[in-house]
Structures are given as C-alpha cells and as structure tokens.
Design brief:
Oligomer: single chain
Helix content: 10-25%
Number of domains: 3
Shape: elongated
Largest sheet: 9 strands, mixed
Bound molecules: uracil
Order of helices and strands: HHEEEEEHEEHEHEEHEEEH
Amino acid sequence: MRLAQILFSQGFGTRRECESLVAIGAVGIDGRTLDDPAAAFDPHGLVLNVRGEAWPVHAKALVLLHKPADYECSQKPKHHPSVMNLLPPPLRRRGVQPIGRLDADTTGLLLLTDDGALIHRLTSPKKHVPKVYEIETTDPVSARQIEDLLRGVVLHDDPLPVRAAACERTGEHALRMTLLEGKYHQVKRMVAAAGNSVARLHRSRFGALELPPDLAPGAWRWLDGAHVVLGSTAQPQPH
Ligand code: URA
C-alpha cells in the first residue's frame, strides 16, 4: 500500500494533505525520514512516526479511554466537552465513536472504535457482555438492597425486572455491581429502585478488560482487537 494511502486510511487528512505530510519530512519509519509518498509498505504491524509521534497502523481503530467526569459521550454534547476531544484528530477524523455510553458524571473504562460491526457486537443485548460498576451511594448500603438488586428491580418504563448479574457491598456507602445489559441510566435507576441513590459512578471493567491502574483520567490506549475485550485474560498493550 502506498505511504500516502496508509496515512489517509489512518485519518491524517485528505490524500493531498497526506502527500504533503510526507513531502515536508513529517513522516518516518524506524528512525528514518521518508520522502516518497508513493513508496509501498505492508501496513500490517507497521508503526509510522508522524510529526514525532509513534503511530501504529490499525485497519480498524479500537481504543480504551479512561473517561474523566464532566465529558459527554455524545458527538453533539450539550453541557460539557465531548470525550472525542480527548483523542487525537486522526482518530476523530476516522469516525471513532463510543461503544455504548457513560453519563457525563460517570468515570472509568470507555471503549471507542470506528468498527460499526464491533459496536453492534459489543452492545447487542444478546451478547451479555459484562460491565462492572463501582458505585458510591448517598445512603448506607443494606443487605436488603443487595438482595433486591440481585433478585431484580422494576424500572418504570420496563415491565420486566432487571437484575444485576453480580452485586456486593464494598463499603458502608459503596457497592460493586455487574450488569449484562446497557439500558439508559441503568445503574442509577436500579439503585434508586432499590431505595438508595448514586453519588458517584465508575466503570472498572468491560468484558474481559479492566481499566489499567496506570491509565490516568483523560488518557487513552490502543487495543489490539476485539479479542482483548471478549477474551478472558488479555490486557491492553501500551502504544
Ligand atoms: N448506568 C448509569 O446509570 N450511568 C452510566 O453512566 C452507566 C451505567
């Protein structure tokens, strides 16, 4: 594949802008500056250097973001900046979007991709991908509330009870809950239906992936493919 074409596929601008990037000496490989936009490379596993930054070439982008509070997952945010602002422009240009949403005040693990089929696969209710939430409550957590969340609570727009796949008390005002669905404000509504309310909400796990402890709020990482989310042991690789 031609170098300019690879840059274009990664979101570095129009074909002409990608050719110019090479022409001005902004692109390199293995410490060597490249000057021919038509030079051919195998994009598989290729790591470019663009304007001094390493850029591992991915046919489809999949990234893990530590979402901070006060960012919206919407592409057209109303009250806070979009999480997209935390990603570099090439990823935004590629049409990367969140896999499911977190509320503006929720922190933690958020996946984003430009792979529409993967979004469908990971958000489909039939797939039952587990999501783990760490919840701080306004009132003390009672054994009865844990029982209710495990047995199922009725949300006002849903006739069938919704259950937590797992739920445990982790402190006087704290609980950890695993959900297999992703309904609108599901955690907050379930905790309210159980007679308490959410003061802070943090997602610590999505499928097989745990939020890496060394990933600061607002920082992101490349992931190597859906298997790291769906598998059982894989962890994200630093880019
Ligand atoms: N449930 C909620 O209520 N909010 C979130 O952000 C995620 C799950």
